[in-house]
Structure formats: structure tokens, C-alpha cells
Amino acid sequence: MRIGTALLDGTPQVVVVESDGSVTPAAEMAGRPLSSVLDVIDDPGLAALLEERSPAGAAQPEAGVEWLAPLRPRRNLFCVGWNYMPHYEEGHKLRDVELPPVPAHPALFSKTPETVVGPGPRVRYPAHSTELDWEGELAVVIGRGGSDIAEDEALDHVFGYTVANDISVRDFQRRHGNQWFKGKSFDTHCPMGPTIVTRAEVPDPQALEVALDVNGEPKQHASTATMIFPVSRLISELSVGMALLPGDVILTGTPAGVGATQDPPQFLQVGDRVTVSISGIGRLESEILSVDG
User: Fold this and answer.
1) Average per-residue pLDDT in the chain?
2) Residue 203 exposed, middle or buried by CB count within 10 Å (0-12, 13-18, 19+)
3) What is the pTM of this model?
4) Beta carbons of 85 and 226 less than 8 angstroms apart
5) Which end of the chain is flanked by fewer CB atoms within 10 Å, N or C?
6) How many C-beta atoms surround the C-beta of residue 115 within 10 A?
7) pLDDT tens-digit profile of 70-87?
8) Phi (first) and psi of residue 139, to 5 degrees
9) Residue partners of 207: CB distance under 8 A and separation at least 6
10) Complete domains list, the chain, with CATH
């Protein structure tokens, strides 16, 4: 099942994408954001809420829908750095340091909820920097919370998967002690969606293709099979001593090919169109607006 949040008659509504490509509101969730009911993911009641459609005639073609972000996380997004080996290598080359051994545990950081926006022309160019970069990523939405989750049980805690772009302001990453939080947390700098594909539709999250292009020019492409730490390991690691909550979102890392490592470096400009595609999940299209956009 593909579900998301769309603006229908001026009101955000949880919708289901039907097999024929039409979009139908989930009648029993009218006025309720998706994040508010994810804590009953293992309860048949949630399935019933999604299955109960609005009356016939409410459906409309997907092409005409204005998508919002599929859900608004109630706390920071969890993110993973350097989770594809070629990106690990290019990142250290950029820093002009010798490549250290692959770490035993993933590099973790976060982005604020205010970074999250839906598809389309919603990403604002920063007023304080010219180093706006792209990072296409698979995003995981947690459906069932828990702490100290075993790796072999971790995927049972997933609600679904969506597409994200961990847009980054590179000089702000360097400015604050080479930690990533500030440079990753400018408002509007995490477009996401347009829909979530539920767990049952994705039998293996390590068998997906991630690709990103800028104005039609390919920049990134990799299989999630080449992640250093698979989705199950990331969930398990994040949950150590800290409960994951329903509605939490995990960005699982980006492949090689970010703008800062191009020769010469390439950064996003106002008017650029960025597309992130993940096989079996969807296609996220974004446009860079002026700072006043």
C-alpha cells in the first residue's frame, strides 16, 4: 500500500494511492495526521482506518494531487553518515585525510522536524551560504517503537519506506567543529515523499536502487545492498538505551556523488530541480527557491 498526505480542497488529508493510480482519502482519518495513529500499527484498527475509503467520486488522478510531506515527525529525524563505502572514501578525500578503517558502528546525527517539506518548489536557498548540496536517501518510518531492539527483529518495527533528500549546507558543517547538526538543519532542507510504501510491499530494503539527478544530469546511483550498515542494523543501533517512537524517521545515508566532492565542486542554485528515485518506493522531485521564496 502507498499512503501519503495530500492537500485536498485546501485541507491536508491522509490518502491511499489505489492500484489504478487514483488517490482516495482514508475516510476514517479525516483531520488526523498519519503520525497521530502510527502507535497502533500492530493493531488491526490502523489497517481498518486506511482501508476505509471516502465515498466513490472522491478519488482523483494522482497526477493532479498536491503532495505534502507524508508525515511530520514529532522529534528530530535520525540520520546516518558515510553509510556507503564510496561516499566514505570521497568524504575523507575531501577532508584531505588518510582513509581510516571502516568504523564498527554507524556515524549518527539528526535534523530538526522543521527541515521536512513535501515535493515541489519548497526548498529555500540559504541566505548565509552558497554551498547547498544534495544527498538522496532511503528513509525508514518506524511504526512500532521500542528500545534495545535485536537486529533480527528490527524490520518488524518498520511501518514503511519513503524517499528523502538530506540537503546540506556544507560550510556550516565545517564551521561548527566539523559536526553536522547545524549544517543539516536549515528549515525546508529535508524534502520527503511523496508517499510511504508500507513494509509488506518492500520484502528486502537492501535490494533497492537509489539515484539522484540535478536538472536531468545523473549525480548519484547505488544499490542499498552496498550499505555498510543495513537498515536492520541501523534500527538496532539507534535503539540502544533510547526508545524509538512510532513516527520516527531514519535517513539511512547517501551514496557517492555529492556536489562537494565533484571536481570542481558543484552546488545547488536557485531554480535547480533535483530528483531522487528509489526503485519500488517512488520519485521525489524538488525545486530550489530563492531565500524569499
Assistant:
1) 90
2) exposed
3) 0.94
4) yes
5) C
6) 24
7) 999 989 999 999 999 888
8) -110, 140
9) 223, 224, 225
10) 2-67 (no CATH), 77-289 (3.90.850.10)
Interatomic CA distance for residues 44 and 112, integer angstroms: 31
Query: What cell does 157 get?
Result: 518495527
71 by DSSP, 3-state: which? coil
For residue 61, give the amino acid letter: P
Cell reading at 158: 518498520
Task: Give the pLDDT confidence of 106-132 residue by residue, as tens digits.
Answer: 999 999 999 999 999 999 999 999 999
| Residue 205 binned pLDDT confidence (cut-offs 50, 70, 90) | very high
CA distance 35 to 269: 33
Peptide bond into 194 cis (omega under 30): yes
Contacts of 106 (CB under 8 A, 6+ apart): 80, 81, 83, 228, 229, 233, 234, 237, 253
Q: What angle do CA 63, 67, 73 make, to 5 degrees?
A: 155
Residue 45 is predicted with a pLDDT of: 63
Collapsing DSSP to helix, strand or coil, 175 comes out as helix
Q: Give the separation between CA 125 and CA 57, rounded to whole angstroms.
A: 40
SS3 287: strand
Return the higher-pLDDT residue of 243 and 11: 243
What is the mean predicted confidence (pLDDT) over 249-254? 97
User: Would you call the peptide bond into 100 cis, given omega within 30 degrees of 0 as the criterion?
Assistant: no
> 109 CB contacts (<8 Å, ≥6 apart)?
79, 81, 179, 180, 181, 184
